[in-house]
Write a structure and sequence with these properties.
Layout (H helix, E strand, L loop, with lengths): L3 H5 L1 H11 L4 H16 L6 E5 L5 H8 L3 E6 L2 H14 L5 E5 L12 E6 L9 H11 E11 L4 H4 L9 E2 L1 H10 L2 E9 L4 H5 L3 H15 L4 H4 L2 E8 L1 H16 L1
Length: about 250
Amino acid sequence: MKGKEWYQADDVAQEYDSKRFSKGGRLIDRREKEAVLAALGPVEDKNILEIACGTGRFTVMLAQEGANIVGLDISRAMMAQGREKARAAGVADRIEFLRGDAARLPFPDDHFDAVFAMRFFHLADTPAKFLAEMARVSKEQVFFDTFNDQSLRVAYNWLLPMGSHLYSERDVQRLLDDAGLDLVDAAHDFVLPFGFYRKIPNGVARPFRGIDLAIGDSTVGDDVASVSYWNAHVTQSAAADTRATDRASDAE
């Protein structure tokens, strides 16, 4: 995965939220949480897996909504931050933080009601493998976001310490097809890239966000959006094929 060593550094984990979700980044945090809740729907008593849970922003939020959730990440330092948040919120009993590899998930087929990943696929060096694993362990739903290749994000992508993988709609559709997933709906947002919002005060960011939303609601909004949220369901035929393959492997 791109920037793997950078991502796992203790100092990165300690400053991750404060650098990204303060100032104008608060707007990003709120919008991303809205997107996750809107896609996953009522989550009370659902079993959910979050890939690349990081510092637990979404993990803790969903536990507060009543979900039983596993947060998987490669960074011990990031998950330590998540455990602190869970304890402070009083939901530690609903969350299991697990260090693991998203390309080889340690769960059986159809284990979770939903599987999701945020801020992950732009770092993924083998996105097809990751998405296939997410589909394998989900009974029904897979949700994730991507950064887009026809957006202003291209202008500063080279500045990022780990680089970033940008996707076209065709790229995502190919990944979904290969993973046996049907796209249910998609949302596109943030004409102005995240890096812009993180650099300006929250009060200044609000007027820019208004302009951003106005462009997003126009006829060209989807085409120039820097972020897309993809909500997909596992096809029954794909799930059956997976189970048949597993049975054949066990018999050998």
